[in-house]
């Protein structure tokens, strides 16, 4: 990845700044759609967008991040969230995670969560997305806590958060579908908290 | 539903016994595939199979059960499980549920769980399947316990079990994908137990 300011370097010749970002998003939707997640390459997407491949890292942190924003249309980056959440005390993390995901997903109408689940119909993509999105996210959170069995804790957290999203947004299963965020924080928060810092055996 | 022995009544004229069952499964796959879950009718499926509509109740307990076996290829009926699980003490139910689902799904290679998730790409079907399979199942279990907020507890249980299946079978996310059943029972059992009988607010 280039250490230069890429928008400055490219200005005038190729799409700059937000234009680069938009061009990459459009190219990514096309290339992921045609080739699937695994066969799509960062180089191929950048080439279709007419920008340098380094722009993918610059704007999206890599292929997974690009997929998350282009295909899943996530309105937030899981990496930003880690920073935000790490500011909380360890014993409130589980509650804050549930609140944060629900608030973000609710704000976007639950649409990207549905896109996330639709991407799971492809086993390869499901694996990649869960790894990048949930596991990257939780692994980074968990690694700061100093507990045993970090990888297992990560998958436990992912299982509850994905399941909650699925029931609330995809199946729209009442009363979870329209429950208040704080009702779910109270019920599910202790689960995620235990998976992060509590006894799991 | 007929109270006669249907295999005896139909023998010689229409497919009998296991043949009826197989004919219904084949017809169901075709009709659910063409019309989706909601628009498919028991009458239409039975008609395509050349058997009486009462056979659907006889062999599958209704449309949901037929869908579960034909499309999801579940090797077991959730209704059988309720009876089996109700024999356990209430304070072991959460652990037994996790153990039972994992054992059944593992035994079938996780394939039907993948079919279950694929069916979620259709919002209507996702809703129907979750309702019939998980909610029917958990609602019946929960109603025998005598706790408050039965419907909410039902969706909480469904969210954890569906999420665990998704991470283990669809995303095949390690170390959950290959964890021992008892490792998951120890970690996830307390969650389902709390959702069934514990404090959720």
UniProtKB/TrEMBL annotation, chains A, B:
UniProt cross-references to Gene3D superfamilies, sorted A to Z: Homeodomain-like, Tetracycline Repressor, domain 2
Location of the DNA-binding region in this protein: 41-60
SUPFAM superfamilies, per the entry: Homeodomain-like (SSF46689), Tetracyclin repressor-like, C-terminal domain (SSF48498)
Keyword Electron transport: no
One annotated GO molecular function: transcription cis-regulatory region binding
Keyword Glycosyltransferase (UniProt): no
This protein's UniProt keywords: DNA-binding
InterPro entries from the UniProt entry: Homeodomain-like_sf, HTH-type_TetR-like_transc_reg, HTH_TetR, Tet_transcr_reg_TetR-rel_C_sf, TetR_C_16
Protein's UniProt name: TetR family transcriptional regulator
Superkingdom, taxonomy of origin: Bacteria
Entry-linked Pfam families: TetR_C_16, TetR_N
Domain HTH tetR-type: 18-78
């Amino acid at each position: 990845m280039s250490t230069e300011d890429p928008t400055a370097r490219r200005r005038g010749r190729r799409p700059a700044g937000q234009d680069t970002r938009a061009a990459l998003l459009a190219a990514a939707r096309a290339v992921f759609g045609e080739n699937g997640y695994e066969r799509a390459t960062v180089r191929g997407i950048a080439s279709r967008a007419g920008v340098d491949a380094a722009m993918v890292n610059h704007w999206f942190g890599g292929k997974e991040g690009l997929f998350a924003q282009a295909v899943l249309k996530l309105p937030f980056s899981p990496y930003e969230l880690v920073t935000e959440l790490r500011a909380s005390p360890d014993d409130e993390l589980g509650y804050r995670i549930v609140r944060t995901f629900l608030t973000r997903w609710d704000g976007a109408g639950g649409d990207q969560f549905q896109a996330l689940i639709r991407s799971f119909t492809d086993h390869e993509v499901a694996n990649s997305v869960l790894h990048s999105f949930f596991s990257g996210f939780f692994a980074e959170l968990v690694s700061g806590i100093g507990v045993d069995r970090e990888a297992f804790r990560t998958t436990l957290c992912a299982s509850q958060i994905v399941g909650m999203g699925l029931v609330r947004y995809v199946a729209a299963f009442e009363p979870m579908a329209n429950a208040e965020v704080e009702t779910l924080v109270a019920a599910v928060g202790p689960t995620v908290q235990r998976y992060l810092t509590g006894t799991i055996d």
